[in-house]
Specification:
Helix content: under 10%
Shape: flat
Structural class: mainly beta
Strand order of the largest sheet: 17-19-20-21-22-23-24-25
CATH architecture of the largest domain: Beta Barrel
CATH class of the largest domain: Mainly Beta
Radius of gyration: 31 Å
Oligomer: single chain
Low-confidence stretches: 1-31, 220-251, 383-390
Largest sheet: 8 strands, antiparallel, barrel
CATH topology of the largest domain: Porin
Number of helices: 0
Order of helices and strands: EEEEEEEEEEEEEEEEEEEEEEEEE
Number of domains: 3
Distance between the termini: 22 Å
Length: 424
Amino acid sequence: MADRRFFLLPLFFLLPAFLPGQELPPPEAGGSFYIERTGEEERFIQRLVWEKADYAYRYEITIEEQSSSGEYAEIRRESRTENFIELSLAPGLYRYQIEVYNLLNRPAGISGWIPFRVFPALQPELYSFRQELTPSGEGDPQGGMEIILQGMNLTEGAEVRLQPADGGGDITPLAYLPLGESARLVFNRETLAPGRYRVYVRNPGGLEGSLEITVSPPLAAADSPAVPPVPGTAVPSAVPEAGDAVDVLSPLGVYISAEYAPLIPFYGYLFTPFDHFFYPWGASLRVGFTPVKQSWGDLGLELAPSWNMLNSGAVKLHAGSFYLNGLYQWRFFKRTMALVFRLGAGISFVYGTGGDQDSGSIFTWMISAGGGIFLRWFMPVFYNFRRITHSTFYLETGAEYNHLFTKDVPAGYVKPVLGIGWNF
């Protein structure tokens, strides 16, 4: 998931009565907040700054937090000789008050309450882009060009710049129109020459994301609805509506995988005649579909047939199952890794034959259920260092548990899984 930090936004900048007409000055270098890094941890530090008072010996600052009912409660009171204080506050509504003490350490004035708000700072993530030409119009005879970014946490107020790969100054768009899961960057066509760029998006909280893009020559006419695709770019299509989730790893959300899945008995009469801890023969096939794709994860369904063989020499069994699973996929590490949770039920069967003796065969079926947790590692397809397709090869490993619901042969087993798959 995207990182959430917190930054400060003052709501009012005027100190009251005892400093009439004086505006709150801009914070010192670093703005009204900065990021503190300790090892691998990051923390947002908010800074409140107020105007220095003549002959002030010290300042006493009181900070209150607003509850959901609208009431304020004091959370901090501190004496300072400097005209600022540094905090690390959770998101919410706050207010503060400054009392000035003179050189005799006696109260010399007090401000009114000054409200401020701490907003969450979101980490922008950029996954893919596409290029579109816009028709010519009055004052713009050559038409324009738009770069449509797809990702997460693309918010209002972000700073956007393009840095050419061959050097030169940064290029800023004429307009930046974010939609949360996508954003439109508008340029004059002549200002954005064909070539490679790196686009940077810096959110108001100070967190930044970037993506390398390739701008193709405008081969199509200005009123053409599409631009020929360039290796490494997505095919132009309709702009996603606000709130739509776009997944560069899964444009369609279809997953097909084949797996090696041996069987480890956990309990039950079914495995008693075999007296083995591990049965190496087993395989499974999975076909999944995740139509719901959001920033908090993907949801979908999966069909999963499987087969295992148990052989003790005297008895040989073929065990199979056909499951319908519910899927939840949580993507992380720039969406190249994902945790997948499965939970479902289905039909299992057992077909047995006597080993070396002609003792006939048995067949039985039963209801079964189970679930598991898996890790997926997505590996996009590249050629000559360019991504040539959004279809993605992936490796998957994990383990699942299954229980067979029958009075005669209740059993449970665990299957470690190692597989390969393709994401369309």
